[in-house]
Amino acid sequence: MGEKSIQKRKYILETARKVFVEKGFKKVTMKDIVEACDISRGGLYLYFESTSQIFQEVMKMETQEADDLFSDSIKEDATASDILLLFLREQKKELLRKKDTLTQAIYEFYFENQLPKKENRLKKQFDSAVRIIEGLIGAGVESGEFYCEDPAGCARNIMFVLEGLKICAQTIGVTPEMVDREILYLFKNLCVEEE
Amino acid sequence: MGEKSIQKRKYILETARKVFVEKGFKKVTMKDIVEACDISRGGLYLYFESTSQIFQEVMKMETQEADDLFSDSIKEDATASDILLLFLREQKKELLRKKDTLTQAIYEFYFENQLPKKENRLKKQFDSAVRIIEGLIGAGVESGEFYCEDPAGCARNIMFVLEGLKICAQTIGVTPEMVDREILYLFKNLCVEEE
DNA sequence: ATATAAAAATACATATGTGTCATTTTTGCG
DNA sequence: CGCAAAAATGACACATATGTATTTTTATAT
Q1: What DSSP string runs through B85-141?
Q2: pLDDT in tens, A180-190
Q3: Which of A96, A139, B147, B186 could lock onto A80 through a cystine, CB 3.0 to 4.6 A?
Q4: Is the CB of A160 less than 8 angstroms away from the CB of B150?
C-alpha cells in the first residue's frame, strides 16, 4: 500500500469519526461513511470491511492522541493537588463538550461488543487512570496536601463519579454548575480540613 | 378496545421487553417483536406504530413497578443508615444482574432521543432519588448516625457513583467485589468516625 | 345456523443496506 | 508517449426493514 493509500485511509478514518460523533455507533452504515467521504461503495471496501472495523481504528487513533493525558502536567514540578485539579478541570471540559465527542458511540460499541478484558481499551484506560490518580493522592498525602486513608478506593470513587457524570451528560443532561459542584465536592473531600 | 385487546397489548409489551433486554434499543425492529410475539406484521401495527412507541410503553410499565423503591423500607421504623444501606444493597443487586435488565436499551434510547426535561423519565428518577437520599442523610445527621456537611452534594455524589457503576457494568464489567468496596466506601465516608 | 364486525394474517410496494465484481479511470514509470 | 499496475467506480444480486391494503379467520348476536 503506497503513501497515497495511507493518506486516503487516514482521510476515511477522520471523516468516519465525524459520522460516529454525529450518529453514534449502531446506526452508522457503510453507506453513511461512503457518502460522507464522497467515495464509491467499492472504494471503501478496498480499505475497510465493516463499520465495526472502522470504528475500532477510529478509537485507536483517538486513544493515541489522548494517551499523554497527564504527561504535560506531570512534567512540571507542580504539587499533587495542582495536578489533580488540572486533571479534573480537563475532565470537566470534556464532559461539557457534548458535541464533537465519541462518547456515545463508544458506549454503544461496547454495549454490542463485550470484549475480553485484554482487548477492552475502555477498561485499560479506566484502570490506568485509577492507578495514576491513586499515585497522585498518595503523593498528596505524603506532602501533607491531602488526607485520605484509602487512596485506591478514593481513586476508584473519583473515576466512577466521572463515568457517572459522563453518562448523565449523554442522557439526562448536566449543567456546568452541576459538574463544578461535583468536582469541588470530590476535591474538598480529599483536602486536609482547615478547622 | 375490548378486554381481550388489553390482554394482548400487555402480552406484546411483556414480550417486547424481553427483546429489548436481549438486543438493546437501536437494533430492535418491528419484525423482531413480531417474531418474538409469534403474531403477524399487520397484527402488531394494529396495536403499536413503532419500536420507539413500544419501548416507551415498556419503560412506563417498568417504572410503575419500580416507583415504590424506598417505600417498603421507609414504612418501618428503621434508622437512616439502615435504610440507606438497604437501598445501596438493592442497587448492588440490580447492578450485578446484568442479564434481564433494560439498562442498556434505556441508555440507547436516551442517546437517540434527547427528550426535554419534563418528559425525561430518567432525569425525574435521578432527581427524585437524589432528594430522597438527601433527606435520608439529613435524618442521619440529626440522629447522630452520620456526619455530613453537605447532604445534597453527598446525595448527588452517591447517585453519580451508582450511575458510573451502572455504565461500567455494561461496558468494562464490574465484579461483585468492586461494587462492594465502592458501596462500603460511600457508606464509610458518611459514618461518624469512631477514632 | 348465519350475518356481521372485529381481529389477525398475508402479500405487496417501497425503501435501505450489504458485499462483490466486471469495468473504467488514474497513476507511475521505462 | 504508451502501457501495465493500482485504484476507484457503479451496477448487480441479495437481504432485510417498513407500512399498508387486501384477504381470511374468529367471535358474537340474532
Answers
A1: HHHHHHHHHHHH--TT--HHHHHHHHHH----GGG-HHHHHHHHHHHHHHHHHHHHH
A2: 999 999 999 89
A3: A139
A4: no
Q: How many CB pairs under 8 A join A and B?
A: 118
CATH fold for domain A74-188: Tetracycline Repressor; domain 2 (1.10.357)
For chain A, the 3-state helix, strand and coil shares in percent, each to the nearest 5, are: 75, 0, 25
Smallest CA–C1' distance to C18, residue: A30
Can you tell me whether residue B48 is helix, strand or coil? Answer: coil
The pLDDT tens digits of the residues spanning B7-54 come to: 999 999 999 999 999 999 999 999 999 999 999 999 999 999 999 999
The confidence score (pLDDT) of residue A72 equals 60
Cβ atoms of B54 and B16 closer than 8 Å:
yes
The three cell numbers locating residue A144: 501533607
Contact B62, B102 (CB under 8 A): yes
B17: cell is 421487553
Domain locations along chain A: 74-188
Q: Mean pLDDT over residues A71-88, rounded?
A: 80
Angle, CA of A24, A172 and B62, to the nearest 5°? 95
Residues of chain B with pLDDT > 90, as a percent, come to 76
- Cell numbers 442521619 correspond to what residue? B140
Burial of A157 (0-12, 13-18, 19+ CB in 10 A): buried
Residue closest to B153 by CA, chosen among B138, B142, B140:
B138
Rounded Cα–Cα distance for residues A151 and A29 (Å): 44
Q: Any long-range contacts for A26-29 (C-beta under 8 Å, 24+ apart)?
A: A26/A108, A26/A112, A26/B24, A26/B26, A26/B27, A26/B108, A27/B26, A27/B112, A28/A55, A28/A105
